[in-house]
Amino acid sequence: MSHYVVTGGAGFIGSAIVRSLLREGARKVVVIDNLLTGHERNIEEVRGSVDFQLADIRHYEQIAPLIRGAAVVFHEAAIPSVPRSIDDPVPSHECNIDGTFNVLRAAREGAAGRVVYAASSSAYGDTEVLPKVESMTPRPKSPYALQKLVGEYYCSVFSSVYGLQTVALRYFNVYGPRQDPSSAYSGVLSLFMKAALERKAPAIFGDGGQSRDFTFVEDVAELNLKAARAANVSGNVYNAGNGGRITLNQAWALVQKLEGVEIPARYGPPRRGDVRDSQADTVAAARDLGHAPRFSFEEGMRQTLAWYRGSIAVLSEPRP
Ligand code: UD1
Questions:
Q1: If you write DSSP's letter for every residue of 86-141 in order, what string do you get?
Q2: How do the domains of the chain map onto residue ranges?
Q3: What local confidence, expressed as pLDDT, does residue 318 receive?
Q4: In the predicted model, what is the mean pLDDT of residues 43-65?
Q5: Ligand 1 geometric centre to CA of 203 (Å)
Q6: Does domain 3-175+216-243+280-294 have CATH number 3.40.50.720?
Q7: If I label 290, which of 94, 145, 243, 272 is the partner at 20 to 30 A Cα–Cα?
Q8: Ligand 1 centroid to 188 CA: how many Å?
Q9: What is the whole-number distance in angstroms between the Cα of residue 192 and the centre of ligand 1?
């Protein structure tokens, strides 16, 4: 029986893909995670249905036997965060570039059916035109953006040179339940939720007018499964976003409304390597993959906040 592999399967997005696969009836799901930014608690309720493997994508020999013969590899393992890649570029380079190469090599040598790769909207950088279309020339502004872009190029080269089936999905600021708010490098919405629940002021870097196409994690997980099945897409790159755009000031206003608090944010200088505006053109993903996001920003935020309310005690323990 061939199996599914989710690298980074104990992470925020990876664990959502694991649960989606199981919901769709997958019989064997192998989770590869080194638990650097992932947590076993993210797959707690499905632990009996998955094969959890503590392994590191930086070590080819650890992952190759697990990937051999897989039907699909969802490659989510990475060290995320733009500022983290600026402060400490070596680990993120090794995971995001060398690790991705190892996953692709293992998939090719092990005759895996397909690799669906977690790419990033950060590859676009500050393009003048919005929304951002896949045909635009990338302009990475940070080590992280560049690393994720190199992974995309590697996918498309493995597709054209070796005939490995690959699809890259450029995630646009994914948020939702299980996103870890315990580090300064955490996604901004997770930090906003934590601040609201702790009745503290969140930090906003810059004037708060920067905007993001915040995308709910369940929509991203669903798109991954569609990308695993779609025909005639190998080597391609698709935006995984909603097509909308929300400023940080709007996002904090909504969190305050949902939580029933009024706490002015603390504004500080803009962050290095930051992109000003980000918004996905979703035409290609809808056409080729059947992408159809179901969650409005308000609905996604409602569900996310409800989850944080139930989990904040565990999540408050600090992490590097
Ligand atoms: C980037 C990518 C995203 C990727 C993510 C991985 C872009 C457009 N997006 O997200 O696709 O998944 O990296 O980490 O490049 N901010 C604050 N206060 C905080 C934290 C952040 O104001 O406490 C601001 C940041 O300066 C930024 C925005 O919030 O303007 C979003 O930051 P963050 O959540 O870290 O994600 P991006 O860097 O946009």
A1: HHSHHHHHIIIIIIHHHHHHHHHHTT-S-EEEEEEGGGG-S-SSSSB-TTSPP---
A2: 3-175+216-243+280-294
A3: 64
A4: 97
A5: 12
A6: yes
A7: 145
A8: 6
A9: 12
Q: Which residues are catalytic?
A: 144
**What is each CA distance from 119 to 40, 148, 187, 271, 312, in whole angstroms?**
23, 6, 16, 22, 29
Position 316 scores a pLDDT of: 66
Q: Is 212 in the pocket of ligand 1 (CB under 6 A)?
A: yes
Atom of ligand 1 nearest to the CA of 141: 15
One-letter amino acid for residue 19 of the chain: R
- Please report the atom of ligand 1 found closest to the CA of residue 276: 30
Residue range 174-210, pLDDT digits in tens: 999 999 999 999 999 999 999 999 999 999 999 999 9
Task: Tell me the pLDDT of the chain averaged across its residues.
Answer: 96
Distance 5 CA to ligand 1 centre (A): 27
C-beta 172 within 6 A of ligand 1: yes
Contacts of 178 (CB under 8 A, 6+ apart): 12, 15, 16, 42, 217, 307
Strand partners, 4: 29, 72
Q: Which atom of ligand 1 is nearest to the CA of 210?
A: 30
Q: Burial, 129: exposed, middle or buried (Cβ in 10 Å; 0-12, 13-18, 19+)?
A: exposed
At 229-258, the pLDDT tens digits run: 999 999 999 999 999 999 999 999 999 999
